[in-house]
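Entry for the shared binder. Reason: the reviewer on the internal report wants the predicted structure included alongside the sequence.
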Amino acid sequence: MKIDINCDLGEGDDLHSCHKDARIMPFISRCNIACGGHAGSPEIMARSIENALLNNLKIGAHPSYPDRDNFGRKSLPISQMELLDSLFWQVNQLHEIARKFDTKLDHIKLHGALYNDAETNRYLAEGIITLLSREYPLLKIIGLANGAMEAIATEKNRLFYREGFIDRQYLNTGQLVPRSLPDSVLHDIDSCLERAVALARGSRFTSYHGTPLQFSVDTICLHGDNPEAVNIAQRLASYLQLHGLSIHS
């Protein structure tokens, strides 16, 4: 069995942060690069793309609410038109930098509060997917398994990758536990590895409130800003192999 592993990268404050990201890259199959909304700069985007190409990774855009002060993790009260304009600017910025390396973007994955809002707000999800269908019809869309983005993408015949998270807790509804709640992020490496196998196989795991959950995914996310991200990534490939799984986009 094969499973796609993605990681949110390019979210540091300077080029030095790209060194940590580069240590994760040999153990994943695709990366989502911040493109100026919550983090990222042209220099960091360029270095991230360069490192991703060295590791043969699929490269995608990781846009967000235009809110660097809160790292894109708070819902922003702006009009949908303003939001869509910002998303286009963010994705296009990364797209143009990718062109300089003679490569193309493969996918798009929303970040933070926008990711969560779009998964519960059908009107917002429809607006975003309509924008992507018009401006970036060839980009795959990555989003939460069984959320609003998947439903709209399916209706519009867009290629959609159902995503699971190895280092985040889930509510009984299948939504992610808000980061404002304690222990919403898994830091224990063994727990993250066990979650990865469960998601890859579509087998049961336990929700934040102790209820069994079970669903299938196409790609699994490891957050690059998790303090244990490098250690988790380094152990992940061998742990998956031990359970008959390999990493492949």
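Summary line for the report: The chain has one domain: 2-247.
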